[in-house]
What we know:
By secondary structure, this protein is mostly helical. It is built from 9 helices and no strands. It has 2 domains: 1-66, Tetracycline Repressor, domain 2 (Orthogonal Bundle), CATH 1.10.357.10; 67-187, no CATH class. Helix 1 packs across helix 4 (48-66), helix 4 runs antiparallel to helix 5 and helix 5 (72-82) packs antiparallel against helix 6.
Amino acid sequence: MAQITKKLITEAALRLAEKKPLNKITVRDITGECGITRNTFYYYFHDIYDVFITYIENRMTEIYENSSDETALFDFMELAAEYKKVWVNCYKTVGHERLSKFAGEKIRSLIIRTFDAEGYLGKIPEADLDIICTFYEEALFGLLMRWLQDKMSDDPERMKLSLDRIRILFEGQLELLAKNSQNSQKS
């Protein structure tokens, strides 16, 4: 029952976030949307932002557990594309820095996981790893936000084609960066 109630709250919050910025959504809006009391809402979540953070963290955990190392970064982008309006409203509400920090942490952890799974973690200098992670955090978050704010990305078929192109263009890049780092240490 608890999981069903949490899911109802989350789904109601996501529906509302499709229509308006997070800072305009109230607990009353959410409780009215899913037919629960305020006390029930606060039993499961601290505030409205906690609903979204919990949802994103749960989905990121699913991505970690169900994606291959090569596809996890792109699956993260698909998650954002799936809830485009929610991400754009988050961006408008919490601002560039906070959303960038949150997304950057997730992107960094996916890159580190990929390097670890491929056996490169510990074989390249920490400074190189930091440069690679920072580059991808900024590049992918910037690309993601431009992409989500583009009116043309409202077309689901076009979004799928864009994701497919991104996958093709970035395939093998992390492995190449790790090998370049290792090779530069030898010379």
